[in-house]
Structure of Succinate--CoA ligase [ADP-forming] subunit beta:
Amino acid sequence: MNIHEYQGKELLKRYGVTVLDGYVAFTPEEAEAAAKKLPGPVYVVKSQIHAGGRGAGRFTNDPDGKGGVRVVKSIEAVKEAATAMLGNVLVTKQTGPEGKQVNRLYIEAGCDIARELYISLLIDRETSRITIMASTEGGMEIEEVAEHQPEKILRTAIDPAAGFSDFHARKLAFGLGLKGKQVAAFTKFVAAFYKAFVDLDCAIVEVNPLVVTGAGEIVALDAKVSFDDSALFRHKDIEALRDDSEMDPKELDAVKNDLNYVALDGEIGCMVNGAGLAMATMDIIKLYGSSPANFLDVGGTATAARVTEAFRIITSDVNVKAILVNIFGGIAKCDMIATGVVEATKTLGLKVPLVVRLEGTNVDLGKKILAESGLAIIPADNLADAAQKVVAAVKKVA
Ligand code: ADP
Ligand code: MG
């Protein structure tokens, strides 16, 4: 799960990370009121969307052609910028061409920037360790740096048993060319940053730019905080920060029903149990010449209610030209799944071909229920058969 920059900064601040003063605003009036609470004379108006590259982004409907992060020098200018930005669609390198509507702003104090650095914490799958990545090339897209100047990215892995020590940070500080009291400030920053990452069960926390100010302070000027969804159950306060307007409505629906759903751009809607089987199903659909419209894992405890819910989400996708149900009945028995599929199909109506492959406990009973339902369900005997049948059905429709 992702949150907005201002929410990320608020969380990091609790751990002792230095951030500048700022306030969220949903209207131009709130933006003006927020600016009045700041010392001035420089204010920054920042679009809050779940995508980076805002500064270099452009609004679809803005004659001034200015970006999604604006540095201004008066309270009137804050209100003016807020009026231009709110409700407008911002297109950045990360939003895709359709962009994202800006519904909230962060009004932040202006920063006296001496240097822009980069820092992030993530879990490196190769070493299975939390790893600090840092670079002198802050403010730029880190993917570009990684591609063209990989030597400019410094990495330090943290041994989970020993945990973080100041020397990890000092090593990076010297690599970044920090001097004197900047080294101590940076060390304090990294210690707080690491503690926040571990305590909050983050997946990635990226601060780009991390700024050295004219006075030698180390300040997080941007914050991208992303959480491990599997750990959210123990952070109800963080879950409450979810901005529903930032999510695909189908994905949001799935989250609320405890289904693992990811929208994709293909044409075959998939309903599968278990992530491994879901991946294999997607692969084989590709192998036979079509592509999946989604990844959907109904989980090990697929009940009739969840099957109906999953069906509702899949059929609400206008790109779906056929559906493939591929379920292994273990804990959830095949007859129960078959009943769920039949009920869901009757409730929601079936407008596209439906191929069902069942395997496992009570498979014969399950197949019988499908065959006797009177519905135009195409039965399949194994994974390859199912994939071939659903791809053939799609080609016929097209
Ligand atoms: P994004 O990464 O989405 O473009 P940032 O928050 O990194 O958004 O802002 C883009 C740039 O705007 C930063 O690299 C920095 O140069 C400038 N900037 C951001 N916040 C401030 C601020 N409070 N004061 C001065 N400059 C800022
Ligand atoms: Mg940034």
About this structure: Residues 20, 44, 46, 52-55, 69, 71, 108, 110-111, 113, 116, 139, 208-209, 221-222 surround adenosine-5'-diphosphate (ligand 1) (CB under 6 Å). The longest strand covers residues 113-124. The radius of gyration is 25 Å. Residues 58 and 67 are 5 Å apart (CA to CA).
